[in-house]
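Students often ask why we bother encoding 3D structure as a string. The short answer is that it lets us treat folding as translation between two languages. Here is a chain of 548 residues written in the first language.
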Amino acid sequence: MASLVATAVKMAGGNDRFDDTITDRVNHVTTTAMLVVMATLVTTTNFVGNPIECFVPKELSKTHVQYFNTLCWINGMYNVSFDTEYIPSARRNGGRKATILYYPWIPLILLGMALMYSLPCLVWRSFQAKSGFDVSNFVDYGFKVSSPKIKNDVRDTLLDHMTLQFERYLSHSNKSQSLTSFSSDDRNDYSYSRQSKWTISFKHLFTKTCFKYIGHKRLNYFSALKILVKFLYVVNSIVLIFLLDVVLGVSFHNYGTDIIKSLFAWNFSKTFRGVEDVRRTKQYWKLNELDRQLNHHQEIRFPKVTMCDVKVRWLAVVNTYSVQCALPNNLFNEKIFLILWFWMVFVAALNIASLIRWVLKISVGKDRYNYVKNLLLLSGLISHKSKPDQKSKQHFDIDATSNISKASDLSDMNANSSSSSNNIYDKRTATTSNTASASISNAKRPLTRLVNNNPSSSIEDNTSFISTILTNQQLNERMLLLKFVKEHLGTDGVLLLHILDQATNTIVAMEMVEKLWINFRERYETILQQQEDITHQKYLKQQRVHRV
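And here it is in the second language, the structure alphabet:
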């Protein structure tokens, strides 16, 4: 028994894993520990006292008493209310059928429920282990970073390691790879090699059909898995309530509601009993009848006194004895399952609310954008002016590069008046529109070169050109943030940040987003600088050709 209690305490501690949400831990930690403790209590009462005491005829010996107790414990019993005048005959209709079969199996039923509440967690951890990203290890590092006793140099090292681990997972996406150092030829070769690997294996066909739009490459593996696990928690908590109807053989799903009705009916009837003038009113008798019926329903579920038929062979004669048996453990079972009913209903409602909440968090792009934006605002890397306009909120799924291309084209219209310069600059704009502008410093570099290499332009034209880019820089930063949330982080990245935030604190999640955002912008600045250098060389070469 001590080992079972120790196991329950260990399970209540959550096994030091916080790679899921609070609602998940309520299911597979709190509820499981509660069920194990209840199973321990019921098992203890079975071994300490007598779980069944049968009232046998006086002419039978003590050996027969023990035999009757054991046989009724094994074969089951049936319930006959004391209000019933006649007991059904044991010889008609095939005899009396035992309906109370759950009594010796209550501990196993409770342990089976504990296992059922742990199954969604096992699904989450087993599929997570095959994802290539250890969420538990990631959260453990987050706990170490959030510790106030950690040194600054160790803290920075852990944050860098967490960022590297995060970036490695994000780099598995095709979209993330297209944002880095892949050229168009490399992407074509990569996609061709992927398309050429068709096999007839069941795993490949299953992946290409059922999970065609779900996986690591689309950065929604953890998101789909989280929604699946949340759905399993909801189904599990609801199915278990109705499954107990079958296991116990009684109507368990409305057990709590009947108890509540019984309490209200008892209070009303008690009030009327204290008033002599209305003792015999119709309302009093109706309430008393309701009270009696509800008590009858409670006795049907967990009766304290039952009947049992035992056959005893005396030489060639078989005698059937119908004896009364007291079930003292049902006094505990009634309270245990009443507590379980209220708890299971609460957990089911909690799971439904959690499922709706996480579906909205994962599927709604505006919520993902606002969450990351708020973390960056907290870090001070972006300003409040980076808030997207209403059109950007409504069309979150539109590719941000098209908007950046329009902003660059607007800049090109004010840059040069000559047709040759416009053609050259349009080529540069078409190239940079695929990667976007990351900061205002990147927007200034080509402007300085164009002004220095085009002395024929007036000061007013150059000033107008620069001011146009400066006003569009804010739009570029918004679009870059949209691209960062949608394509670089994806739904999985935002989900993992939510898990890290809930497990540790908001500061750790903010610092993680800060490092990811800096790396993302540096990558864009490097790519943009390389393309600007190539475009500038082409521009100078074209200018020399025109001069000659």
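Translate back mentally: Residues 135-231 form one domain. Keep this in mind for the problem set.
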